[in-house]
Amino acid sequence: MCLSLPMQVVAHADPTGEVAIVERRDGEALRRDRVNMLLIGPQAIGTWVLVSLGLAREIVDDDQRALIEDALSAIQAVRGGSYEAGRHFGDLLRAPLHGDGP
Fold first, then answer.
1. How far apart (Å, rounded) are the C-alpha atoms in residues 32 and 76?
2. Mean pLDDT of 41-57
3. Cα dist from 81 to 49, 64, 68, 78, whole Å
4. 62-101 pLDDT, tens per residue?
5. For residues 87 and 93, what is the distance between their CA atoms, to the nearest angstrom?
């Protein structure tokens, strides 16, 4: 199984911007990778992108990134035995149930 992670463009690895240096902080650890930007094109430094297997797949806005980070946090909590339904996936808890119409 492969997860895509939101990572921020911090530098261009070549003059064309087709390869970027991206990073994300995971607690105390800083993860830094070189990624191919072929699918989405060169991006400005500071842009958040969704990365999978060394390839930037899409640009991620702040709202999308918050949802992804929440899901990743829930996975870590499950693995660590500290998952609480009310703490994760707040967007789902606030969503109306199907069939509840005006």
1. 20
2. 97
3. 30, 26, 20, 5
4. 999 988 888 888 777 777 777 776 676 666 667 676 655 5
5. 10
Of residues 46, 41, 48, the one with CA closest to residue 17 = 41
Judging by beta carbons within 10 Å of its beta carbon (0-12, 13-18, 19+), is residue 15 exposed, middle or buried? exposed
Paired residues of 63 in beta bridges:
none
Query: Residue 47: how many CB atoms within 10 A of its CB?
Result: 19
Whole-angstrom distance, CA of residue 55 vs CA of residue 22: 11
User: Alpha-carbon distance 79 to 25, whole Å?
Assistant: 19
**Interval 3-26 mean pLDDT:** 94
Question: What mean pLDDT comes out for the span 36-65?
Answer: 96
Closest listed residue to residue 85, CA positions, set 74, 95, 76, 96:
74
